[in-house]
């Protein structure tokens, strides 16, 4: 079974992007623009369990090793860097994940990458791009609930009117 099939068939683990440690201004206030969004981790992919548990520091070098060639590595690197608040590098990893997802036959891979790009965009304060990424994720896979929830949260907070 190829890796893309494995990561696509399994459920992606979610991490709420309420990043108080990475984004101190966000805190735990549910009305803070960066809280409540969901990032998707490929749990059964490259170091997914470590990313979910927050064991980021020791996994970063390993994730970076294959992040240019493997969808699961680049996706999990995107999430890990987002958790650390390294948003420019996270964005680069998310873009790489999206580029790699285009090689997959599974629309869910593309939806995961686009939704994660949307969350990183929210954290960077680029709400217009975030909305576009969430909408594109839903066009790729209308069943991807995280993109739907992220888009609704963004719209509820009025952030798309910026």
- What kind of oligomer do you see? single chain
- Count of separate DSSP helical elements: 8
For the biggest sheet, the summary is: 2 strands, antiparallel
Strand arrangement, major sheet? 1-2
Total beta-strand segments: 2
Helix proportion = 55-70%
State the end-to-end distance: 45 Å
Q: What overall form do the CA principal axes indicate?
A: globular
**Overall mean confidence score, pLDDT:** 79
Q: Label the structural class.
A: mainly alpha
- Catalogue the unreliable spans: 1-13, 16-33
Helix and strand element order = HEEHHHHHHH
Radius of gyration: 14 Å
Instruction: Report the sheet-strand fraction.
Output: under 5%
Summarize the structure.
Helix content is 57%, strand content 5%. With 162 residues, it is mainly alpha-helical.
Question: Any descriptors?
Answer:
5% strand; globular; 8 helices; two-stranded antiparallel sheet; mainly alpha; 162 residues
Description:
With 162 residues, this protein is mostly helical. Helices cover 57% and strands 5% of the residues. It has a two-stranded antiparallel sheet. Helix 4 packs antiparallel against helix 5, helix 5 packs antiparallel against helix 6 (107-123) and helix 7 runs antiparallel to helix 8 (145-156). The chain is globular.
């Amino acid at each position: 079974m190829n890796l893309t099939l494995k990561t696509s068939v399994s459920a992606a683990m979610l991490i709420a992007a309420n990043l108080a440690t990475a984004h101190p201004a966000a805190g735990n206030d549910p009305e803070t623009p960066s809280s409540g969004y969901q990032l998707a981790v490929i749990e059964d992919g490259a170091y997914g369990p470590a990313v979910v548990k927050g064991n980021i520091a020791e996994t970063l070098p390993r994730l970076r090793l294959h992040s240019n060639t493997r969808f699961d590595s680049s996706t999990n690197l995107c999430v890990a860097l987002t958790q650390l608040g390294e948003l420019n590098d996270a964005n680069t990893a998310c873009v790489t994940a999206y580029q790699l997802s285009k090689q997959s036959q599974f629309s869910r891979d593309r939806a995961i990458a686009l939704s994660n790009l949307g969350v990183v965009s929210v954290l960077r304060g680029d709400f217009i791009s975030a909305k576009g990424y969430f909408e594109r994720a839903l066009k790729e896979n209308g069943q991807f609930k995280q993109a739907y929830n992220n888009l609704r949260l963004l719209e509820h907070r009025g952030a798309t009117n910026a």
